[in-house]
Write a structure and sequence with these properties.
31 strands, 393 residues, mainly beta, four-stranded antiparallel sheet, 1 helix, globular
Length: 393
């Protein structure tokens, strides 16, 4: 199966890979000539490893199946290690499930195409959802350890990667069910950690219907909330700091199928004082018929400016489910503009494209996954966007 382009401005498709028929791609990350893809779980595949030394011809090297009743849909690569989450799947089972795997797998990458597992950190409970790790001592993640109602924030110490240990945790009061805590949030709302991106000693944490939570992590063993910001939307997902501009770019994940699902947006928050974040505004919604289409329409992931990748505090790259990939210019944060987009053809067996995650590598290539069946896409900026990307580094 080879898929093409349905709509585009400033970006062109240069390669596609169907991941050997397991096209339910989730997180994607490139490190050198190796590309790692986590799978959402519906295909029962866990992790795919591709050789992308020739980006125009990605070659599948290996695939690992996920453990029973588990998905391993997130990958993080740095410092010669690959980290992979283990979480119960499906999230909301309709029948009793058997045993599942819950925690964090650590792999050595002496051979980047043949990772060797060297450790597993057991979280208990439902397991680990999302990981943030760029090397160094601590991996930050969201997890549902035993005794908790929903996802909390956890730091794991990788000073000795073969013996990971928990370093600290933070939860919203009311989440610790085993401790007798009762929810203090409105009925029908969900307070759950997604993941935190860290700038200095400050972690910016998306916390679902609580929106933004700001943590002081100067003492990893005793993180504390120092600020928050509410704007009334739900399912707050990624909080990307732009430290040189005192801004956060925040996605509220669309979790409902359309047509005309509840609106979700990408927001700007002023964090000149992290203890007093203030709401700044929204990025433009994509033009087009997307709200009238089936499946999800709305934001999901951002390119997170990781070390070694393309990094900019001006250009923002986002996935928007059935509206594909969107690129925004924040030269004037009071007047953000969409400057490029790309939408795939609808993959066979689904009703609309579902652009899920993306990674912009140091060469400016954009690696994109489809959530359902579409697999992996490789995009290249057209000359005008390439020039803007170089200017905005």
């Amino acid at each position: 199966m080879s898929l093409g382009t349905a709509a585009a401005k400033g970006l062109r498709l240069v390669a596609h890979h169907d991941l050997a028929g397991s096209g339910d791609g989730m997180q994607v990350m490139r490190e050198g000539d190796a590309l790692y893809v986590g799978h959402s779980g519906t295909s029962r595949m866990g992790t795919s490893i591709l050789d992308v030394s020739d980006p125009l011809r990605p070659r599948l090297v290996d695939q690992w199946r996920a453990p029973d009743n588990t998905h391993t849909h997130k990958v993080q690569v740095a410092g010669g290690l690959l980290l992979v989450n283990h979480e119960r799947f499906p999230y909301r089972p309709t029948r009793p499930l058997g045993p599942h795997s819950a925690g964090l797998a650590v792999y050595d990458l002496k051979d980047p195409f043949a990772p060797e597992q060297i450790a597993f950190w057991e979280s208990g409970g439902k397991g680990v959802h999302r990981i943030v790790w760029e090397g160094g001592r601590y991996a930050h993640m969201s997890a549902v350890p035993g005794g908790f109602r929903d996802r909390i924030w956890v730091a794991v110490d990788l000073a000795d990667p073969a013996r990971p240990v928990e370093a600290g945790r933070w939860w919203w009061p009311g989440q610790w069910e085993a401790g007798g805590e009762q929810p203090d949030w409105p009925e029908g709302r969900r307070y759950a950690a997604h993941h935190a991106l860290v700038s200095g000693d400050v972690a910016y944490l998306g916390f679902d219907d609580a929106n933004l939570v700001v943590l002081d992590v100067s003492d990893m063993a005793a993180p504390k909330m120092i600020g928050r910001c509410r704007w009334g939307g739900g399912a707050t997902h990624t909080c990307l700091p732009l430290p040189g501009r005192d801004l956060l770019v925040v996605t509220d994940e669309q979790q409902h199928d359309g047509p005309r699902a509840p609106e979700r947006r990408i927001h700007l928050v002023d964090v000149a004082d992290p203890a007093e974040p203030s709401y700044r505004g929204v990025l433009p919604h994509p033009d087009g018929p997307y709200d009238d289409l089936p499946m999800r329409f709305g934001p999901h992931n951002l390119h997170e400016n990781r070390q070694g990748s393309y990094r900019s505090e001006r250009l923002i790259f986002a996935t928007y489910f059935n509206a594909g990939v969107r690129v925004y210019d924040l030269a004037d944060p009071d007047d953000p503009r969409e400057v490029a987009h790309w939408v795939s053809e609808t993959p066979p067996g689904q009703q609309a494209p579902q652009a899920n995650d993306l990674f912009v590598d140091g060469d400016g290539l954009i690696w994109v996954t489809d959530r359902t069946h579409g697999g992996l896409f490789v995009l290249e900026p057209e000359p005008e966007l390439a020039a803007l990307m170089e200017e905005a580094r």
